[in-house]
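User: We ran a pulldown and think these components assemble together. Before we commit to crystallization trials, I'd like a predicted model of the whole complex to look at. Sequences follow.
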Amino acid sequence: MLSKATIKDIQSLQHKKFRDETHTFLAEGPKVVHELLQESAFECVAIYGLADWVEKAIQESTEFEKYMHIVSEIELSKLATYTTPNKVVAVFKKATVVSNFELKNNITLVLDDIQDPGNLGTIIRTADWFGVKNIVCSLKTADAYNSKVVQSTMASLARVNILYTDHIDWVKKNRSVKVLATLLKGNALKEYKGLGEGILLIGNEANGLCEELQQLADEKITIPGFGKAESLNAAIATAIVLYELKNS
Amino acid sequence: MLSKATIKDIQSLQHKKFRDETHTFLAEGPKVVHELLQESAFECVAIYGLADWVEKAIQESTEFEKYMHIVSEIELSKLATYTTPNKVVAVFKKATVVSNFELKNNITLVLDDIQDPGNLGTIIRTADWFGVKNIVCSLKTADAYNSKVVQSTMASLARVNILYTDHIDWVKKNRSVKVLATLLKGNALKEYKGLGEGILLIGNEANGLCEELQQLADEKITIPGFGKAESLNAAIATAIVLYELKNS
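Assistant: Here's a predicted model for the assembly, 496 residues in total across the polymer chains.
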C-alpha cells in the first residue's frame, strides 16, 4: 500500500511547478509506459501498476522489476489524471536540455506560445518524424511534460531536444541560418523545397506569429490554399512546411 | 427565462442521437456563433446569449434578432458543454448531405473510423483549405456535429459535404478514379505531385487502415520519414498528402 506522502508526491506531478522542481514527470497507461521503457527513452524512477500488469511485465523482462510497485485500482485512480482506469502509471526523469546546438544543416523550430497541449504533442511527434532535433519554445508555450503531451508524443519526446527560453531573444542571437515564417501572405512554399536548413517560426493558434518575430523573418512562406478556410491549424502548417523543406 | 423543457431540449443536443433526430446541433461561444452567422453557414434555429452579448450583436446587425433569447449566466452554464462561461450558444440546422457527388477532378477523403473529434475537426478544416468538397466517413467515425468538432472547424463544416455510410461498400462502388492509401510502405508521395484527383483513404488513429481498404487501394503512398517516430498523426498525414496532390 502506498503512503499518503507518496500519493501526494505523484499527484503533484500533474502541476508544472512540481515537475520543474523534481525534474520528473508522469506517464500514464500501458502503451506510453511500455514505449518509454522499451526505448529507454527516459531514466525510470518508479512504476505503479495493477497486479496483473506488473506480473505480465516481469514475465516479459525483469529489467525494470526493481522500480515496480503493485497498487490497487483505487490507488491507481488517485495517481492518474485520466478517469478511465489504465493499469499503470510511471515516473520518469526529464531529459537534459541542450542549449547550444547545431543550426547548420538542421531545421530548428521556434514555437511562439503554442497553448494547446494536443498541438504541442503533434508538433513534437511530427518534428521527430522529419528528423528535427531541436525545438525552442517561448516561455508561454504549453509544457512538454504535461501528461497530454507525453501521451501523444511518447518516445518522440526523448528524441527531440526542447528548450524553453525567451524565444525572441534566442532568435535575435541565432541568425546564422535563414529565419523562415509561415504566414498567410508570402512566397509559395514549393520555392523552399529541399532547403533542409533554417529556423522555422510557428505562431500561436489564435493570434499567429507576433509582430516582432515576423520582422525577424528572412523569408515569408505561404501554403497555397484552394478553399475558403481562413487558416490552417498550427501543427498542420508545421508539418506541411517540414515535408517540403525535407523533400528533395 | 427559459422553460425546463427548452433547457432539456438544448442539453439533449450534446448527444448524437438527439442531433440526428432533430437534424440540429449546438455551437458554443462567441467566435463560433459569430462565424456561423456571418458566413450564413447553417440555417439558424435559436440563439441564447447573455444580455450584453445580445445587445452588442443587435447593434451590429438586426438580421438575427428574431432568433435571439437573453439568458442568465446560470441558464447559459446549463446549456453549454464547456465549463468556462462563453456568452452565447446557438442551435443551427445541420447541412443537407449530398450522396451522389462528382469524383472526377476532385479529391475525396474516406475516413476509416477516425475516433478523436479533434482529429476529425482538423481533417475537415484542412480539407476545406485544400478545396476538398466531399468526405465519406465510416459509421464509426466521430460525429462531425459533436461540439468539439464544431468548435475547431467553424464554417469549414458547412463548406465540406460529409457523408456517413458503410465506407468500404462506398469505395467498392465508386472506383471510377484512383483509390489512394497512405501507408508506412509504398511509393514516395512526391510521385503523386499535382495528381489532383482520387479517393484518399485515411486510417484509424491506433490501427491504421483496415485490411479490406488496403486491398482496395490502387496506389500505396508513403510520406518519407527522417527520424525514428513510428507514425504520423492521421490529420497530419492527410494534410501532407493533400498538399502534394494539389501542388502543381
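The two ends of chain A are 57 Å apart (CA to CA). That may be worth checking against your pulldown data before setting up trials.

User: Thanks, that helps.
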